[in-house]
Amino acid sequence: MATTTEEQPIIFLDDISVTFKTRTGSIFKPNKVHAVQNVSLKLMPGETIGIVGESGCGKSTTANVMCGLQSPTSGHVYFKGMDVTKRTPELRKQIGRVVSVVFQDPATALNPRMIVKDQLMDPLLVHKVGTEEEREARINELVSLVGLPHSALRALPGQLSGGQRRRALLARGFAQETDLVLLDEPTNHLDVHHQLHLLGVLRDSGRTIIATIHDLDLAMSYFDQVVVLHQGGMLCAGHPQDVLIPDNLRKVFDVQALIAQLPEATNPHLIIDSL
């Protein structure tokens, strides 16, 4: 049932499951893989949520359901109180104006034949954002925001380093100033300095952010809420210090962990070691 109170979530996953058929089994009874099972999640305005879990646990599938790239096999998806489980082309267009998606691999998400400036300009033109002067100013603002040199605007993606391509992709995701930004492993290909810079930008942006992330220490330090997935289901969700606890991390990742507050550090950190 959709939420109608003032605290209405931007996205509400209501007991969603995603099942894929495999090529094994028989024609009449193929085997199935349960990628996500019975996940319920509310994403509130202005909140930052990190999704963590072992490889293959359903992080990307859950994110894809949120942004409409994957339909759930069962359950419902609500967007600002509206049931969008079965999305029509018009619904997709409507949601596309207020939701940005940043995919994991810049090599496939960026057009190798277009210079970076044109790729940042493209979503602004498609969604008719601002005047020509305002769009130019927005692009200059974006490259500064993600720490990309302005010279990169004239380059093709293949002429940039892996980290620069990642930052170009992030800049495009921020271009529209949408209500919600969904990112799949945003810190991949970035050095430590740019990882921390990016997560600080996300945290301070005021937008609603949801990101799949493999670095548990960064999840601890930079997100309001963390969702822990395990074997396709949701093990727990809540404040990072409440869910990224030794027992949960041992169960999901088979590691031992300790939460530490360093004397001069702003945020708590995770110290992790193998069992």
Question: What can be said about this structure in brief?
Answer:
The protein is α/β, with parallel strands linked by helices and 275 residues long.
* Widest β-sheet, arrangement of strands: 6-7-8-3-9-10
Principal-axis shape equals: globular
Strand proportion, as a percent range, falls in 25-35%
Kindly report the CATH topology of the largest domain. Rossmann fold
Low-confidence stretches: 1-5
Count of helical segments? 10
- The radius of gyration computed from the alpha-carbon positions, rounded to a whole number of angstroms, is 19 Å
**Named CATH architecture of the largest domain:** 3-Layer(aba) Sandwich
End-to-end C-alpha gap: 43 Å
Summarize model confidence as the mean pLDDT.
Answer: 87
- The CATH superfamily name of the largest domain is P-loop containing nucleotide triphosphate hydrolases
The residue fraction in helices comes out at: 25-40%
Structural domains: how many: 2
Helix-strand topology string: EEEHEEHEHHHHEHEHEEHHEE
- How many strand units? 12
**Largest sheet descriptor:** 6 strands, mixed
Account of the protein in words:
- There is one protein chain.
- The protein is α/β, with parallel strands linked by helices.
- It has 2 domains: 11-98 and 178-274, 3-Layer(aba) Sandwich (Rossmann fold); 108-176, no CATH class.
- It has helices spanning 59-67, 89-96, 106-109, 116-126, 132-145, 162-174, 192-204, 216-222, 240-243, 246-253; strands at residues 11-25, 30-43, 48-53, 74-79, 82-83, 99-102, 180-184, 208-212, 225-230, 233-238, 255-260, 269-274.
